[in-house]
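Amino Acid Chain and Its Fold in Token Form
===========================================
Scope: a single protein chain, as residues and as a discrete description of its fold.
Amino acid sequence: labelled as such and written in the usual single-letter residue code.
Position: the record begins directly beneath this header, with no further notes in between.
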Amino acid sequence: MYFALPKEYREATVDDLQARAQAVRDRLGKRLLILTHHYQRVEVAAFHDHLGDSYGLSKLAAAQREAEFIVFCGVHFMAESADVLTAPEQKVFLPNPLAGCPMADMAEMADVLAAWECLEEFGGDRRVMPISYMNTAAGLKAFTGRHGGLICTSSNARAALTWAFGLREKVFFFPDEHLGYNTGIALGIAPEEMVLWDFKRDGGGLTRAQMEKAKIILWKGHCHVHTNFRAEHVEQVRRDYPGVKVVVHPECPHEVVRLADSVGSTSHIVDFCRKAPAGSTIAIGTEINLIHRMALEHPDKRIFELSGQTCPVCANMYRTTLNDLVYTLENLDTVKPIAVKEPIRSEARLALEKMLEIA
């Protein structure tokens, strides 16, 4: 896909862009809603109507009935979910259409369907509940809804697995292995009862005995941002900053999660920073733009990135610029909205609505 902003927007000054964005917001009023993920650039986040994680923003989109135009400053799967959850007459826009998600790309529809064909030998819909992380394309959300499953986010993964085990014996969790594993451990599931399905190998690289014993079948997928963090980073930061509090995202490897003081979604991390007393030192294991914003918003606290060695930036979240946002706002009548077609829309909606119900 090719995408290039017109020269007028590429060369506009920050002051000009800010004034133009605000002018559109003032003109459209409640007809416009800007939903912004926590990982967005500071200058983009400044123009949010609602700032949150993928779960919170999905919930807001589902409840929103006034806005004609919903601009989602995030990545493609988030805008798709917003389109699925809103009314057909509402239009959802993604300011930068190239903003995707490498983790979502690790679960291709053909590979998931091949895995499910194997899982049918172990009971299929009768024994296995599919749970798709929000970081998947609409087609995989539809697959999940079609087979009675639901979507989860890092905010409600524990509730999602609890719900699933109340109905079926096993869970097929994709595409993030770390979120699934960390949630399973938190629920008391033994490591040997969780297996990793490698979509590049026949039968996922698993034996029949492993599949029979497994309670959770984890997809071999990960977030390239959160797997930057290592146990030695936590150990080093504790040596360097006595009394530091370490808070990390559950997409981090388990050895990092196990050593952290607190683990949770981006909204959880935001809340942790807000509630920490003045003078606190907080090392955060997540995307750098959120960390930067937390440091700016809490100057009475020392807040920094956990590893101290890497720059854990989500390049796709970072794609969206203030220039992109203003171009979209000023061209809502001509920019192509995100549109999920039937029957994918209805089947994906089943899985997304279950996500909202269990919370």
Q: What stands out?
A: The radius of gyration is 21 Å.
